């Protein structure tokens, strides 16, 4: 059984070399330092964390926003996320939405492993709900908790299988149709437009002109790609910008509302509280209390 010391070393971003002595049953890489099923409590979040090891995060139920290195990944059930040592990331649960995930933290010790050849710069490795890969990840977590050597060896083998299957899935995606590639490029234009013009009165017709696609097609494909509709994504961007302004400036709530595209502070306030569970002023007060 992996002890509490090892779990702490995995969760606090320890370097790989510091964990080897705590892993007597892992005689070769990959060394798995944490594998568990996590039910996020209401309001739970992690902000701007970095890890010293590799992480696979699989969404079992619900959804959450997962910014990695400045890019937002709105994750839904079945999404498999990957990030590397030293990459800043956050996990932001959504008001009224559950979030259950499998977290796998691992490293390859002193051995060089060509992770870049598998995933390039990718973070979202695909959606695997109902697949054999999902079953393997669940079994991996179960085996990790067993104290015997054979279980640990099976867990390591399943991790390697999961990495290989995810890489094969990405390769298949990269060789997809030209139409799919063009559509994704257009959706990225829509995403970029929203991020650049969030303070304006963004309308679906603006997005139609940018993408050259119909409104309904944009809504369906954007949600499939990013987990949110364009207008839901616009709201998410505005919330993040409002939080940034509250942290970094001395603007009033009404001034922040105006900066993120709301002419009426009351409408902004209702939206912010509905989506986050707290008012912006309460958010600021909590930060001040925390700092003290």
From TrEMBL:
Keyword Ion transport annotated: no
Transcription among keywords: yes
Keywords, alphabetical: Activator, Cytoplasm, DNA-binding, Transcription, Transcription regulation
Biased composition (Polar residues): 11-20
A Pfam family that the UniProt record links to this protein: AraC_binding
Residues in HTH araC/xylS-type domain copies: 188-286
Composition-biased stretches (Basic and acidic residues): 1-10
PROSITE patterns linked: HTH_ARAC_FAMILY_1, HTH_ARAC_FAMILY_2
Domain of life of the source: Bacteria
Protein name: AraC family transcriptional regulator
Span list, region Disordered: 1-20
SUPFAM superfamilies: Homeodomain-like, Regulatory protein AraC
Signal sequence region: none
Molecular function via GO: DNA-binding transcription factor activity; sequence-specific DNA binding
């Amino acid at each position: 059984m992996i002890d509490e010391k090892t779990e702490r070393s995995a969760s606090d971003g320890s370097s790989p070399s510091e964990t080897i002595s705590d892993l007597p049953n892992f005689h070769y890489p990959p060394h798995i330092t944490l594998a568990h099923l996590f039910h996020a409590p209401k309001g739970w979040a992690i902000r701007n964390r970095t890890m010293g090891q590799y992480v696979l995060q699989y969404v079992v139920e619900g959804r959450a926003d997962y910014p990695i290195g400045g890019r937002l990944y709105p994750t839904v059930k079945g999404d498999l996320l990957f990030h590397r040592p030293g990459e800043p990331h956050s996990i932001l649960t959504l008001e009224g939405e559950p979030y259950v995930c499998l977290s796998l933290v691992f490293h390859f010790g002193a051995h060089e492993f060509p992770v870049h050849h598998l995933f390039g710069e990718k973070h979202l490795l695909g959606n695997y709900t109902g697949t054999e890969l999902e079953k393997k990840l669940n079994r991996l977590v179960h085996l990790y908790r067993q104290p015997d050597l054979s279980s640990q060896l099976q867990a390591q083998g399943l991790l390697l299988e999961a990495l290989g299957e995810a890489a094969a899935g990405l390769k298949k995606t990269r060789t997809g149709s030209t139409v799919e590639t063009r559509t994704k490029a257009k959706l990225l234009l829509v995403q970029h437009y929203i991020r650049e013009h969030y303070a304006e009165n963004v309308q679906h017709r603006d997005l139609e002109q940018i993408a050259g696609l119909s409104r309904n097609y944009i809504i369906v494909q954007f949600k499939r790609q990013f987990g949110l509709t364009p207008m839901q994504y616009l709201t998410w961007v505005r919330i993040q910008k409002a939080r940034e302004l509250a942290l970094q400036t001395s603007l009033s709530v009404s001034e922040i509302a105006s900066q993120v595209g709301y002419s009426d502070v009351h409408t902004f306030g209702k939206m912010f509280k509905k989506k986050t569970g707290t008012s912006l002023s309460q958010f600021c007060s909590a930060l001040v209390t925390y700092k003290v």
